[in-house]
Design a protein that fits this description.
CATH superfamily of the largest domain: HAD superfamily/HAD-like
Family: Belongs to the 5'(3')-deoxyribonucleotidase family.
CATH topology of the largest domain: Rossmann fold
Keywords: Hydrolase, Magnesium, Metal-binding
Number of strands: 18
CATH class of the largest domain: Alpha Beta
Strand content: 15-25%
Distance between the termini: 59 Å
InterPro entries: HAD-like_sf, HAD-SF_hydro_IG_5-nucl, HAD_sf, Pur_nucleotidase
CATH architecture of the largest domain: 3-Layer(aba) Sandwich
GO molecular function: 5'-nucleotidase activity; metal ion binding
Shape: globular
Largest sheet: 9 strands, mixed
Helix content: 25-40%
Binding site for Mg(2+): 68, 377
Number of domains: 3
Number of helices: 12
Structural class: alpha/beta
Amino acid sequence: MSYKMDKGQKAVLADQRLSSELMESRDGVQEPCIWSSPEGGKDEAELGKRIFCNRSLNMRNIIAVGFDMDYTLAQYKPETFEKLAYEGTIEKLVSNLGYPEELLGWTFNWKYMVRGLVVDKKRGNILKMDRHKYVKVAYHGFRELTKEEKVGTYGNTLIRDAFDEPDYALIDTLFSLAEAYLFSQLVDYMDKNPGRVPARVDYARMYKDVRSAVDMCHRDGTLKQMVAKDPIKYINEDKSIVPLLKMLRDSRRATFLVTNSLWDYTNIVMNFLCESRTLDACNFDWLQYFDVVITGSAKPGFFHEESNANLFEVEPESGKLINTDNGTPMAQVGNTSPSITLKKQNERCRVFQGGTVRHLHKLLSIGSSSQVLYVGDHIYGDILRSKKVLGWRTMLVVPELEAEVKLLWELRDSRKALQLMRSDRDHIEDQIHRLRWSLE
């Protein structure tokens, strides 16, 4: 990524055909190319800090840059946060849904599951499919299905399965990893201990119970209360967030935050991320880096302009909601004009709850949706909806990509050798076919 300074000394992204893409060298092996910095690209950027681009984007056309919070700006530690979610879910299964107490002694392997898998609710299977929706690997609990079992179950029908709800569930968020692992454990437990789970519970009902237990943890605030008490235990520190936001604001672009989390939790997490490192609920210094903050957005429904969701303004000090008319505060009964108490340094940033993208466009005075770049982690809830429905430009945060690209680079010699062997195989097969034709 290269930077230019215009006459007003504003930092703009000049060439979005980012050279952090994998470039192909003369010998056919892909090599990572160093992406340039304001100093001229002397140092190679860390793999986890690189940007990969699948189409060009001229940042001069972008007037507003938005962010999701959870797993985008706030990267949670899987070894602690996912474990917390896992333990909370088990506690709800035992105390609220009648599952055996011995589940409380189970442990969680946070490295086992990955995003992109599919849960077969009825059969108790976890599937890994290719881009064409062919099942490549299938596990029943933690037992891998044989090729014959896999083909007999998923490849022996005249009409292909769509692998959609209600019979299947996609593990498409990092929040889903703990519940998928727990479901596999329950499948194994049910197979090996018939009669130990609640009566009339099959695999599908068991998955539904896991989802219900997860929802209970979110509804009663079990997870977020623990994170709020000790953010550094559950959230990775990232000192590059504040410089990034400052750079965007110095370039005179609007910045906004749209998160499904409510204001009290959002304030604690953003306080932690923006260097203040304080749990003081009355500290709103981080608001200076945004023009608009929308909490409780209920994405992906937020991206539908025809949605009738109401927009409320949040009073930061008290957390109270104020009725608004498309972002304009409405006077209460007996008052001629509404008043919102905000600290002076935060006058430019307003905090809201709910609403739709229609409200956001009006608040930021956005005339064209193509002028917005949105950064999120959920490929369906953040990226596809905002791109297809609105036409926003999008950036997807994929933490797993770091390990994938690193592995590709480490195995570059093996991949090159494999390509050569495949080429030799194709050449030999071609010769064999020609000889057979000549004999016939």
